[in-house]
Amino acid sequence: MKKIFIVILFGSALIGCAPDNSTISTDIVNNPQTAGGTNENAKLPAIKFEEELFEFGEISQGEKVEHVFMFTNTGEADLIVTSAKGSCGCTVPEWPKKPIKPGEKGEINVIFNSEGKKGKQHKKVTIVANTQPSTNVVAISGDVIAPEVN
Length: 150
Prior knowledge:
4-stranded mixed sheet, Immunoglobulin-like, 4-stranded antiparallel sheet
């Protein structure tokens, strides 16, 4: 019985350490930036936010703040947002999954949960897209007022 357990454990470890053969299609995100420089004739998307910082003021601990960061694709190609990630688990962004055509608008919806937080808060959301540079950052900021403990 002990030998069977060891064989199963060893087999599981080998399977868990197998290389990940998944790939990302370059058809989805096409950014012609190379180590040798940019292609001057390349048509790139560009992301322009209406605001990059949202001040939510003072809130009570436990409240949630939701804000929509509006943006426009000011470039010459479809804008594809591949991810958006908050600086901590309390900041959760949602982003468009479909390409944004040149001249079209899109939005990044951010929810900040102040549960367990107190004092000045400044939370960033890093957006990765097929732009140059490929990362853009927006942020929310404000004060969380914790209840007084007697």
